[in-house]
């Protein structure tokens, strides 16, 4: 795909629900033809953005897009709870380890699970985990 994707590859862009970008219009929204799932980005589009980042020489950004693609499988409410627990002094080591396990086993999100475990290690070294 050519970048910017929204300019050069517009016809190939789909939402999480499979709706094409050009079908998401204000008129369609007003008519109730666009649902919340229709405006969420698809994991495939996030992976494409990661490829663009890699080709531009930005591997860390590519990893961010890979994790974002994984998170499309996680319910929004769960993401908000995880975000809260990842703040300093908000979780025990066990809670973060269990979070990583859930990301891996339930949501097939290995890159996100790895990041949570890395955060857990750093939090432990800095003393910003809650006591068990």
What this model shows, in words?
The chain contains seven helices and no strands. By secondary structure, the protein is mainly alpha-helical. Helix 6 packs antiparallel against helix 7 (110-126). The termini are far apart.
Total strand count, please?
0
Bin the helical content.
Answer: 55-70%
Termini, distance in Å? Answer: 49 Å
Largest sheet: none
Q: Structural class of the secondary structure composition?
A: mainly alpha
What's the rounded overall pLDDT mean? 95
Which labels suit this protein?
57% helix, 7 helices, 132 residues, 0% strand, mainly alpha
Itemize the secondary structure elements and their pairings.
Blueprint (H helix, E strand, L loop, with lengths): L4 H4 L17 H5 L12 H13 L3 H13 L4 H10 L7 H13 L4 H17 L6
Summarize this, please?
With 132 residues, the chain is mostly helical.
């Amino acid at each position: 795909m050519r970048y910017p994707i929204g300019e050069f590859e517009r016809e190939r862009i789909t939402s999480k629900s499979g709706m094409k970008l050009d079908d998401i219009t204000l008129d369609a929204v007003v008519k109730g033809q666009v649902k919340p799932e229709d405006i969420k980005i698809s994991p495939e589009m996030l992976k494409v953005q990661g490829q663009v980042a890699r080709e531009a020489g930005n591997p860390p950004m590519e990893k961010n897009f890979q994790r974002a693609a994984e998170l499309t499988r996680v319910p929004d409410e769960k993401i908000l709870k995880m975000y809260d627990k990842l703040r300093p002094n908000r979780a025990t080591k066990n809670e973060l380890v269990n979070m990583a396990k859930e990301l891996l086993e339930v949501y097939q999100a290995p890159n996100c699970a790895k990041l949570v475990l890395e955060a857990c290690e750093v939090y432990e070294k800095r003393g910003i985990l809650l006591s068990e």
